[in-house]
Amino acid sequence: MFQDIMENVFLGNRVADYLICALLFFAGFGIIKILRHFLLKRLKKWAEKTATTLDDFLVGIIQNIALPLAYFGVLYMSINTLALNPLLSKGINITMMAILVIFAARLAVALTRYGFDVYSAKRGKDETLDRSLTGILKVVKLIIWGLAITFFLDNLGFEISAVIAGLGIGGVAVALAAQAVLADLFSYFAILFDRPFEIGDFIIIGEYLGTIEHIGIKTTRIRSLGGEQVIFSNKDLTSSRVRNYKRMGKRRVVFRLGVTYQTPLEKLKAIPGIVEKAIKNIKDTTFDRAHFFSYGDFNLIFEVVYYVMSRDYNKYMDIQQEINFAVKKEFEKHDIEFAYPTQTLYVNKTT
Prior knowledge:
The chain is elongated, with a radius of gyration of 38 Å. Strand 9 and strand 10 form a beta hairpin. By secondary structure, it is of the alpha+beta class. It has 10 helices and 10 strands. The chain folds into 3 domains: 2-170, no CATH class; 190-244, SH3 type barrels (Roll); 251-333, 2-Layer Sandwich (Alpha-Beta Plaits), CATH 3.30.70. The model has no long low-confidence stretch (mean pLDDT 82). It has helices at 2-7, 15-49, 54-79, 86-123, 127-155, 160-177, 179-194, 234-238, 265-280, 313-333; strands at residues 9-10, 13-14, 202-205, 208-215, 219-224, 229-233, 242-244, 251-259, 285-295, 300-308. Helix 3 (54-79) packs antiparallel against helix 4 (86-123), helix 4 (86-123) packs antiparallel against helix 5 (127-155) and helix 9 (265-280) runs antiparallel to helix 10.
């Protein structure tokens, strides 16, 4: 009698077929549950002990993508053991394809986000970079989901190629009309990833100089020393020679002194030593050289080179001021006169 019940046909399938389908379904779910309880739990504990983020990322992928997809896979394989109506079977296949596309898109987005997180961590904490990467991630997500939908519709039999060709022609037309905007956009990406400068850096571009306040998709804004805001297109910046003073580890300073032609040779020989002593007595400086450089029109010129061990401009000016005071004091002590423009007029007296 039991065998007769098993052989009964209902909606095109025997009762035994339904039982096999249910057995496969519950067995598959049970195996996944066991793996989730033991394997995933151990993976989480292992990930907590390591310093890297890759293992945490893999655990998240397993938990949020692999396991749900496995449940859907068990359900799909169980149902496929039954003889189904062609229309119903097609609906199930389409549903499973949609699920696969969704999870594939989610995986692509997760990989992109993890790549951005790793890049951001290597660069250090930077709110501007984080905001920029968040904006780029939104664009990437839009592209990924657009491709996923296109792939899904193409597999359903829709004529996507004609639509893509039309979009391609339209895209070329838009690109030609917006060349300047696209050039600034690509320059923005170059600035973002290459980082020739950052917000807060003091830079000089040609005759303009100031501190960077904002780096946007199309323009970069600089606050000049005069107080006004100077706006550059990103393309102008990436195609120009930019001097970034904030990246300067130390500042090389060259200056010249002029003394009178009446200065005795002994005092001239003492001047390099006087200047060297004055510089070495000041903190955060490194003396390089001091030499009798040349004969000027009205003075004897000495050239001095030293380094300020800081990129701060105000500190450099404070140090230069201290050096000037010290040199002035020593010159007065040694009775050495600074030169200034003079003219000598010779008068011939004739009788």
